[in-house]
Amino acid sequence: MKKKKLGILAALGLSASLILGACSSGGEEDYKFLSIVTGGTTGTYYALGGTLAQIITDETGVETTAEVSQASAANMTALKDGKAEIAFVQTDIAYYATAGEFMFEGDAIDSIAAIGALYPETIQLVTTAKSGITSYEDLKGKKVSVGAPGSGTFANAEQLLEIHGMSMDDIDAQNLDFGESSESLQSGQIDAAFITSGTPTGAVEALSATTDVVIVPVEDDKADALIEKYPYYAKETIPVDTYKSTKEVPTVSVLAMLAVSKELPDELVYDITKAIYENTDKITHPKGAFIKSETGLDGIDIDVHPGAQKYFDEVGAGK
């Protein structure tokens, strides 16, 4: 009798091991919900994130939701801490995170990989006609929103000030999000704001509805100097009429990308990648036009998730 019981227990133990093994194998069926961390409600990340979440839900059957967040740097920490599975992030910030540089100095994150690049994120120095600010040099001594410390916008502001011979010490820096920046510009509480986001940016559009908006240009020689020192930047032009403007404005940009936890199984990430890049016709936001498989690996300087790489290899966009 005892031997029979032992045999039954052994069989049950083996069955349990097989079940646990199947669960720990990281199959797609283990993920019923996914979270995409985006940015503030007035930025492009959040607006686009909702659409991408719906596409992933529809195409993969895994319910996916877009979450409000403090954007790039905070999103990398959320992936590391397991609080999200997918994240919007600037290409420069993703690099800093994996290399342990700038805001991630001494705290490199090795648990994230890329899904792919999305669209240019334009660095916009926004002010109003009544401020009288027309150049970077005019910022000295002025109240300027530079985003949250450690954010992508903060890093961009710091580097652009540097190229123009200034630092945070030369301005009265204010740590506001895009919506707060827009409201503070309108009320005159600040003089200018750095906003790194795909254009048109909702917060700036809202401001332009009631105020004459001015985007301060980055002159060609300064853009060249910036790109030489920080190669992840590119020259960018804000088109006429973007914010009721009558002329193009030269500036610079980085790329928006999607990063993912390396723990997600290859099959699931393959399906997510395929869902995004093959359903861009369902994206109504203007930045949807930039999301293409052939440019999906542009500007990516971190590991690409094997599932995403499989998709790009299949469509001929291998890294």
From TrEMBL:
InterPro entries: TRAP_TAXI
Pfam families: NMT1_3 (PF16868)
Signal peptide positions on this chain: 1-22
UniProt xrefs under CDD domains: PBP2_TtGluBP
UniProt entry keywords in alphabetical sequence: Signal
PROSITE patterns named in the record: PROKAR_LIPOPROTEIN (PS51257)
Cited NCBIfam families: TRAP_TAXI
Name this protein carries in UniProt: TAXI family TRAP transporter solute-binding subunit
Source organism per UniProt: Paenisporosarcina quisquiliarum
